[in-house]
Structures are given as structure tokens and as C-alpha cells.
Specification:
Blueprint: H1 2-44, H2 49-60, E1 69-71, E2 77-79, H3 85-92, H4 95-98, H5 102-110, H6 115-130, E3 134-140, H7 143-149, E4 151-156, E5 163-169, H8 191-194, E6 196-206, H9 212-221, H10 255-261, E7 271-281, E8 286-287, H11 288-291
Antiparallel strand pairs: 1-2, 3-6, 4-5, 5-8, 6-7
Helix pairs in contact: 1-2, 2-6
Amino acid sequence: MVEFVIILPVMLTLVLAIVQFALIYKAKITLNYATFQTVRAGSLNNGSLSEMEQAFTSNMAPMFTSSYLRFDGSDGCTSDFNATDGARLARLGGAQITEDGLRGVLDSRIGNFDSEKVLCARRIVQQQIDDGYVNISVVNPTITSFNILGVDGYHDVTGNDDIRIVNMIPNDNLMYRNPQVVGVGISTQSIQDANLLKIHVGYCYELIIPFINRMVWAMQRYGPGAAPASETGFANYWADPAATPPGFFGPPYAGFASSCIVNPADTGRRSIVLYSQSIMRMQSAAVQCETTDTCAPASP
């Protein structure tokens, strides 16, 4: 009995950690796919940052899509999760409860993932972008790429026949263009190099498993001996701030990681930063103002 009492907290912690890191792995796989679709959208739309954000929203939404989501009537979404059989029957139909075969259960759920659920999931991701929990940055082409290899060209900056002269990197007949490397130092590249769109996506993933979320977050938030007094209460990880384990390697210095871990938009949010990168050959001419989302419409 004594052995069981000693080992139980360790085993529970291990089980909770396995569940949390499985969810992190799922999020990372979804992020990798969303990043690929994001760079694809950019390559087809002149490197447009706004188009890439829309693509990221659509392809990250499956992680949040649920038959429980619905519009709440105030331009927002809510979850009507309820564990009773009556609620399941109302939400998914009789097959969810009466069908013995798994196939029938799955089929009964498919019809309930309507546009409302999908739009709500996309709205969740869009809200995360607005709150600063997503950071999409264009690694290549750089400002130097546009300065050295860019040319003046006509571009519809709004999609409503607002044609203007902008700085763009030619994309046509690349195999016949001069492959000479131009520039100075680390900024040297050819016209073919400049037509490789590379993006870097940072995603602030919220940890949701009790205890484990605080433990993983604290390892990123605090450095050795830096835990505040508020973290020394009952059921926290250490008894004395001065005894913070050396494995605590935070906090992030600055930038996206710091805003995610140290200063999240939602107070009390425990998160971990996930990163993904993707690269693809441009299928349209890269436009400088599109990659920075600064193609403002013309004044009336």
C-alpha cells in the first residue's frame, strides 16, 4: 500500500504528460500541413500575406472543428457540449445511440459537420491571429531581393481593377533568365533564388492538461531561481523560489515567443511555441507590398 501511494503521483503525472504531448504532436502535424498550404497560397497570389493568413485559417481549422460548435447569435461561436444521451441524440441523431456498428456512428456524425461548425472553427483560428498567437513571416524573398532584382510592373492591388505600378520580382521564363548571382555578402542570390517563397510560421499552442500545462509553461517562463512567490503555493512545483530546478530555461528574450509565453493576450494562458517552415517555387510574380500586406487601396 505504501508503495502504491508513493508511485501513484508519479504515474498520474506520466499519464497526463503523455496525453498532453500527444496533443502537442497533433497540433504540430496540423501546423505543418497548414504551413504548406499557406506557402502554396502565397506562391499563387503574388506572395500576398493576407491570402496566406486566409489559407492558414482554413487549414488550421480542422484542429478545432467539432459537432458541438454553433453560432451564439451575437456574431460569435460557442460550444453546446453536453454529456447526456438526450443532448447527443439532439445533436447527432438516433444512429449515435442506437447504431451498433462503428461505421454507422461515424456516418451519423459526418452529416452534422455543417458549414456552421467549419466557419466557427475558422473564426477561432482567425481570432488567434488577431490576438497575436500566430506569426506568419516571409523569409524569402527579402527586402534586399526586391531592391536588387525587383522591377516595376502593373498589379491589381485590391482585386477590384485597382491597377498600379508596384515593385515585383519577375516570374516568367525563369529557366531562360540569367542565373548570375547578384548582391553583396549574405544577400547574394539569383533571380531563380528570389522566386523561392519561404515562410516561417510561429504558433502559440495552448496547453490544456491540468498540472502538466503549468509545468511545461513554467519551464519556458522562468529561469533557474527565478520563480515568483505566487508560484510557491500548494500543489505547485517547488517549495522555494531559490530552488527552481536548473531545467527551467526561460524566459524568452523577445519577439513572438516572449509575447506567447510571458505576455499572452489572455491572462493565465499557458502555452508552448510551435514552429514550422515551408518553401515553394513562386507561381506568380512576387509583389513587395503584398508580402508585407501594405498594398493600400488608392485614395478616393
